[in-house]
Here is the input.
Amino acid sequence: MKVLVTGGRGLLGGAVVRELVSRGHEVTCLQRTTAGHGPAVREVLGDVTSATDVAAAALECAAVVHLAAKVSMQGEWADFERVNVEGTRTVLQEARKAGVGRLVFVSSPSVAHAGHALIGAGAEPADPEGARGNYARSKAIAERLVLADEALATVAVRPHLVWGPGDTQFVARIAERAKRGRLVYVDDGAALIDTTYVDNAADAIAQGLDRCEEPEVRGRAFVVTNGEPRTVREILSRIAVAAGALPPSRGIPFAAARAAGSLVEAAWRRGDRTDEPALSAFVAEQLATAHWFDQRATWAALDWQPRVSLAEGFARLAASM
Here is the structure.
């Protein structure tokens, strides 16, 4: 198929583009700056909030993978709404006009997370009212828009904590703090969490595109992970070691971490900063709370299972650093 990918510059976006090309699809990327995907990929510079840009990129495409989003723990609601909600609305509108038949919305488990522990959870319905933070709330609204669109065969894929070589967010922040001797866990670091190696996430998204017209997939949301829950302490330690640093050796109480995170967030807002804080109340909560998912429904519906184990993923990460 001819496939439009919005937001193909990042870690996951780049992996999705490579996976689609490897499957024989003709890929067009819509992004604000060039990504250098190579001659096999058509790049259109533009913004998902512009109907003109989206229309130009969607021309002759049969499918869309919508990744572009404002992803941040900070920021004003209006900015998240403009990109994540109205941008998604524009993509849907222009996809219909272009005769696109399929659309995969890359979402997040946070759209259905109200702050409590998730233990063997499934893909609960997106809940804008209960979602925590502007990012999760805006993605929840956008996911609802996508799955309610009956003109397209749609599916929402929610990869959880995506990481891998070249990750400038999750991995880079942990590695930087570990090298400075400032990496700690919350409480005893025993909370079980799921993560997703980037190639597995990309593979699942491509599989969702292939299968979104199937009755058991169309109009549904699926959480995607490696299916190998590990303690927060183990995940932090393995990333630190892969980066050539010592693993964390001490924890801080959750109450103290959450209070410190709230203070940091307040300082960031007062300073009108655009970078991400090292700690927030949400991050403290994530480090102290179990969140892992039952993958059986995902594996069955998408006819997919992870190809890269955590052990292999960490070996690849270490080799890249």
Q: What stands out?
A: Residues 155 and 220 are 5 Å apart (CA to CA). The chain has a mean pLDDT of 92.
